[in-house]
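HUMAN: Spend a minute on the protein record below and explain its fold to me.
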Amino acid sequence: MWKLAAIVLAGLGLRLAESRVEAAPPDDIKAWLSKQIEEASGNFGGRAFKIQYRVESQEKLDTGELARLREKLKNLPEHPERARLRHLEQLEKYGPEVRKQTVWFRDGEMRVNREAGNDPSSKYFDFVSLKDSGWKMTPDQMFVLGGPAEQPAGHQLEIPSKAVMNEVRDLLAPGLRYLGKLDGVELVEQQDGTWIATRSETTERGAWRYEVRLGWESPSGPGRLLEGKVIDQANGDVVQRVVARDFVSVNGFASTVASPLLMEYKVVPARVSSLESIEPIDAAEFRRVTAMPAFDGEDAIRGKVTFAQLTDLSSKEPSFVIRDKNGDVRNLDFADTREGHDRGMLRTLGWGTAGALVVLLVLLRVRRAS
């Protein structure tokens, strides 16, 4: 009798535990998660801020691959694997890349300052991406760009802008850029007291499941985003994973910021991001830091700039400002360059050929008429 009661109670306890795991989540957790998703959106919840962070590559040097490529390419200077060899040699000489970035963000627009890396020959690289224009610079070159739709190949800012935004999103709300929205998200409590938010999606590239694990400290919070995953539903492989190793409290944000944050690709550690500072900015400060410096002028962040070349790609035909070896500055239109001259010659040749064809057609008609 007692054994039967024990079995019944044990079974009841198991069912109670299972029902606790599958119970509908409290409204306050849903509301908090919704706020987090908003902060991880493209507009960061309408905030304007400056954030500084450090990204350390976790890449390990494959000495076997390095030796193989050196042997294979020693007499092949133009081989396409040369780029990979140069990368491995840089890794051998200077160690894994350490990148420090500062981002000013407001209303979908941004300035990004990337400092020089480990290699002593590397230089800083800055770019500004606005809704109607953009520019980018190194210590010796400046490029003036039009809006996103007018930016030529090789100078488009959309891809680097998205990469930076994803890094910032992962720090502020780890994994939530995978979920994207609360609609269709299932939220289930786990035995250890954490919660898993899951959403599935089928795209042209396959079927995916997005999972975010969050902690909930007390009935009133605060919550913490602990881990995010992208899972290939075809084979169950984890394609991407972010893991918060620790947290930093930041005023004005609904959650503590993950720092350091580990990013993995296919279970291989890729990089660790660490927050250095974050602070709000106003519209005037954003305008100040995104103002384009003159050829021999002042940048709001870098100070005095002295470019060797400024390339204006904001119109159909590029123009240039060039400083020669003597320090003299010249303004050049596209037609003044070798490429422009060659194009002009082709255009002239084309008109000449067209004229010759017209003459030939006239002669043929005259002969037929006679």
